[in-house]
Write a structure and sequence with these properties.
Helix content: 40-55%
Structural class: mainly alpha
Shape: globular
Number of helices: 4
Length: 99
């Protein structure tokens, strides 16, 4: 229960920008796109995705989404989308340390 309370306190409905249907900065819009597939989470990843929680690494994203009950397919799709969009700050540090 303590972990759920901590996640709830850290969640923000507009983390990384509120979802929009109009241009935001260099992005045509903010949100997840399922445009390349007929069903959500079966299409290619969406680098414009945002999440209500902030994750440092892909592993942290996967672990948290699994803890919260997301399906494995949904978890992989969302975490890969966040990674593709550069939203996982810890992954940048890992990549730089391997150079």
């Amino acid at each position: 229960m303590a972990r759920l309370a901590k996640l709830e306190r850290s969640a923000s409905s507009c983390n990384g920008g509120c979802e929009t249907s109009y241009r935001v900065g260099n992005a045509p819009w903010v949100g997840c796109s399922f445009s390349s597939g007929s069903e959500p989470f079966t299409s290619h990843f969406s680098p414009t995705c945002r999440d209500t929680l902030t994750y440092n690494t892909y592993a942290q994203c996967v672990e948290t989404k699994s803890f919260l009950g997301a399906s494995p397919r949904e978890t992989r799709w969302l975490c890969t989308s966040l990674l593709a969009g550069g939203k996982l700050a810890g992954e940048k540090q890992v990549a730089e340390s391997r150079r």
